[in-house]
Amino acid sequence: MNNRTHTSVPLAERMRPTTLADFIGQEHLIGRGRLLSELIDQGKIPSLLLWGPPGSGKTTMATILAHSIQADFIFFSAVLSGVKEIRKIVQKAEDKQATTDSPTLLFVDEIHRFNKSQQDAFLPHVESGLLTLIGATTENPSFQVIAPLLSRCQVLLLKPLDPEDIKILLLRALADDNQGLGGQGLEVDEQALTMLAGGVDGDCRRALNCLETSAMLALQGSDQQSCTITAQLVREAMQERTLQYDQAGEEHYNLISALHKSLRDSDPDGACYWLGRMLAGGEDPLYIARRLIRFASEDIGIADPRALEVAISCRQAYHMLGSPEGELALHQAAAYLATAPKSNALYMMEKTIKKEIKRSGTLPVPLHLRNAPTKLMKNIGYGKNYRYAHDSRDGLVAQEHLPEKLSGKIFYRPTDRGYEAVILDRLTKWRKILKQRAQEQKNAEQKNTA
Fold it and tell me: pLDDT category, 75, cuts 50, 70, 90?
């Protein structure tokens, strides 16, 4: 019996394709005229990084590529191996190069788990052509792979398999008498097949594992020549659906970005969906609360002054209640922020001020704004000509509050949305009054001088 058909070998491993013709999915890479098809036809494979979710075919694709160019294929796990093993592989490749022209293709599974020094060990040998490296990763290579190695490899993005593609793989496994589940009288009803194909987030390995478990449950205790895999059996085999999420990786940033943009675009449905996805994936709820607080200032600001209060209150509510009770407060805050009027005027003001300070440096405080607690300070002009706003009939005084070199500069430009519309109207009126008073003061000073 072939080792791959041994009962100890999982169905997903036994059904692994060995040729490109049997590979299902990733048509954007292996379809006619596409990159990998062309490379195989040319008989030369460059160093590659295969980036994709679990069960998208990274290991299978690497194996097929190695066989297509008759390369010496070495499987290397970043979880189990280190620099010592890399040296042995390099020595073996050098010995082989001295006696034959056969290339060495090194497949590194989960390459993102290597640290910088381990990844550095590949560099000279990939650059010299001694090794053709194919790395597989579920993490964004931009974050996890060092820049010099990244520049020497072509990154190929693998996508989750479509449910229809997974259905093909499942039916193939049920019909295969040699490697699959054929010859056991197994059938699968349409509802069960749809559930298997649609409930695994595009992960073909998980789909085949669930099929194998479902088949075992169907055959268990059955004395009939044929038995059917039903939706109830599939539901039992799959248990609770596990969502793909990595609190430290790209998916973390993807989901928080989707949440933030949904809030900014005033879509409470999208915002609360992505918030729910993050919670279901195991994200720290207090991290989400902090992001909501930031959003309240960055994208709403004074357009709705209550937004910040709501965001802070939701964090306090979650801190008091914990999960799951406190999670509703997060959804409440997200819905409120999504439906609040939006303004980034405060955010833009902060950026402009930081830029101005970097450009102009530490400009001195105008003398009239300085405090004068001592006689010496008064004598040299500290606080001179300062006008006390409450002495004015309307609380407005025409005096400069910026350094002389920035006189008249405006940083805060409120929008006409939400409460900022009130502020915009108020500032417009105030500036008109102050401009008139400043002119009156100037005319009075000129008259006194004359």
Answer: confident
